[in-house]
Amino acid sequence: MYRSIPVADPAGAGRSAVVLVNLGTPDAPKTADVRRYLRQFLSDPRVVEQPRWLWLPILHGIILPLRSRRSAHAYSTVWSDRGSPLAFHTRALTDAVRDRLPASVEVEMAMRYGQPSIADVLRRLDHDGCLQRLLVLPLYPQYSATTTASVFDAVMAELATWRRIPAVRFVDEYCSLPDWQAAVAGSLQRHWQAQGRGDHLLFSFHGIPQRYVDAGDPYYGQCRASAAAIAARLGLAADQWSISFQSRVGREPWLQPYTDARIPELAAAGVRRLDVACPGFAADCLETLEEVAMQYRDLFLGSGGERFDYVPALNDDAGHADALAELVRAQCADWPPFADRTA
Ligand SMILES: C=CC1=C(C)c2cc3[nH]c(cc4nc(cc5[nH]c(cc1n2)c(C)c5CCC(=O)O)C(CCC(=O)O)=C4C)c(C)c3C=C
Ligand SMILES: [Fe+2]
Ligand SMILES: [Fe+2]
Questions:
Q1: Alpha carbon of 285 to ligand 1 centroid (Å)
Q2: Which of 63, 180, 248, 325 is the most buried (most CB within 10 A)?
Q3: How does strand 131-138 pair with strand 167-170?
Q4: What is the CATH code of the structural domain delimited by 178-311?
Q5: Other beta carbons within 10 Å of 276
Q6: Contact, 146 vs 46, CB < 8 A?
Q7: Cβ of 335: how many Cβ atoms within 10 Å?
Q8: What is the pLDDT of residues 137-181, one digit of tens each?
Q9: Annotation-wise, does 60 bind a ligand?
């Protein structure tokens, strides 16, 4: 019934582990792999809040057959010999965070959809039954039920099958942390020092349905507040920056303004040189590298703009890893090895 494993050292103090969880990505940019990934992703009731009897026939009859091929093509434009950008950037960030923490804390990455799955990573961490303390850090700076809460669901679904459950802590958001805001502002400043600065800075966040925000999802407020905090650190005036929402799927209204409407609007208002940053994405991925850096570049240049700069996500930037390692230390301050409780 519940998972049984012989405990290697019943008298031992047990171990502490940190799991950084990102969204996940297909195994390969092929229609069949993308289809398997989209099926898991879009079957999650946190992502698509529709009655299952209504949604599942649409998903299997229309969305998966049409979207898998189209998305596979989009993935093939960003795939590299290191694999999917979301996967290799998340791995590099996890390594950088691990390097900054005591060697006795295990630091692993997991993916909400696809591989390595949350269930596999948790079981591996508890292979000897000695995982006693677990910090889950979803790599979403802003909380949304569609992303953050879905990670929580998957962690709890796995632990619900365990006999010996570790103490669990869960990070709900980190966009309000000054260290993270400083890391984003710092990467923009470095970009401007190297490339020069545009006329306007657009912060483009992944959208969600407006209906979810109306029902209490704090995502919109956190996007606005964190963009404003970053702009303030950069000393930008109100007309030098704005926010928008990208990656809409389906027909119902999502958060606005839409990035693909805002970009031509900025060009028409006289912006010749546009900088775009995506501070809702911890790691570069399909949505930043293909949708923003390719599609929206073409859109801006085709609307009369002269120069378009996509400022990369923080990925394994030192300031990013420092901020997340500090967040782990603060969250686990009373756990070994951060605190010696024998004192
Ligand atoms: C259909 C509903 C979707 C919601 C709601 C949604 C929210 C959401 N997503 C991210 C981050 C990422 N999404 C990515 C890809 C992606 N997102 C959706 C749909 C929704 N996302 C789809 C169908 C896809 C797959 C690609 C496609 O077919 O267009 C990715 C990139 C993954 C990669 O492999 O590179 C990320 C990251 C956030 C932060 C969010 C809500 C706040
Ligand atoms: Fe998404
Ligand atoms: Fe997309």
A1: 10
A2: 180
A3: parallel
A4: 3.40.50.1400
A5: 26
A6: yes
A7: 19
A8: 999 999 999 999 999 999 999 999 999 999 999 999 999 999 999
A9: no
